[in-house]
Amino acid sequence: xxxxxxxxxxxxxxxxxRIQELIDSKGYARVVDIALSLGISQASVTNMVxxxxxxxxxxxxxxxxxxxxxxxRAIARAVIDRHRILTExxxxxxxxESEVERDVEGMEHHLSSSSLGAIESLCRELTSNRELLxxxxxxxx
Amino acid sequence: xxxxxxxxxxxxxxxxxRIQELIDSKGYARVVDIALSLGISQASVTNMVxxxxxxxxxxxxxxxxxxxxxxxRAIARAVIDRHRILTExxxxxxxxESEVERDVEGMEHHLSSSSLGAIESLCRELTSNRELLxxxxxxxx
DNA sequence: TAAAGAAATTAGCCAAGGCTAATTTTTATG
DNA sequence: CATAAAAATTAGCCTTGGCTAATTTCTTTA
Lengths: 141, 141
Ligand SMILES: [Mn+2]
Ligand SMILES: [Mn+2]
Ligand SMILES: [Mn+2]
Ligand SMILES: [Mn+2]
Description:
The structure is a homodimer. Chain A has two domains: about 10-75, Winged helix-like DNA-binding domain superfamily/Winged helix DNA-binding domain (Arc Repressor Mutant, subunit A, Orthogonal Bundle); about 80-140, Diphtheria Toxin Repressor, domain 2. Chain A has a two-stranded antiparallel sheet with strand order 1-2. By secondary structure, chain A is mainly alpha-helical. In chain A, a hairpin with a 5-residue loop joins β1 (about 60) and β2 (about 65-70). Chain A starts with 9 loop residues before the first helix and ends with a helix. Chain A has helices at about 10-25, 30-40, 40-55, 70-90, 95-105, 115-130, 130-140; strands at about 60, 65-70. Chain A is built from seven helices and two strands, in the order αααββαααα. The interface between A and B is medium-sized, with 32 and 32 residues. One manganese (II) ion binds near residues 10, 14, 108 and 109 of chain B. Chain A binds a DNA duplex through α3.
């Protein structure tokens, strides 16, 4: 029996995604780093961390550190995956880096795993078939 | 000189999209119809209509009707376009209708026109090349 | 080891976008 | 044309997720 897990908001997903990325790259995620890298205030991060703890996505010790629960990590990994695939997809299509970032950061919260799988398959095809890729790229206004 | 027009929220875009669709299909958009078809209360619609009027997206006469301004119509048309292309794209990939609807309704607010053009081109290619489409579809888990 | 500085938290505020209940206005109908 | 029903609005509430300013706790350093 798998617990269903209610849909997380885009904001919650962005926090979990960034927390996991910080842990992957520096080994820990401090409030100040989360704030800096998401471009929001430390106070806002403290509030959200309290919420993420209450909802069981992180374990938080006041004035100390922060770790992800299994559930929080699962959500973070899923978001990071969607981010990665969507980025690969739009880059393949020749979209400018700044537009890729903006589009992906929004779309990553609205992609079912079916759609993700389909786009993944499409990326594989576009990568292995450069002629196709050229054709698609040349068909854009 | 083209007025830049600040980014509209997803909620604003959903309202304008639906208002335009109602006008296209029945000739007018009443508060009660907007509420019914978006699945929200009439009171919430009245509030938003007031906001859309204040921001110049619709012209509203109290207890009377509602029309879109040029700016409102332009936004509505753009959202409807993104909705249509994304729907075509995910359907081509074989995603179930209910997932298509959910994904599209969210993603349509986060797609630059570059990305839209690229996906449009991709749809043309997938439509005219059934062998490619089969290959992509069979590559999905 | 006492300050100073950095990090975290709290308090209090705001806007967006929902809701229900009550009221007002318009429309339809006997 | 009076009244009932439908539509629209208002009033008042709530949650989410931001903000700044003030305060508290931890860490570094002279
Ligand atoms: Mn995001
Ligand atoms: Mn992301
Ligand atoms: Mn939508
Ligand atoms: Mn739509």
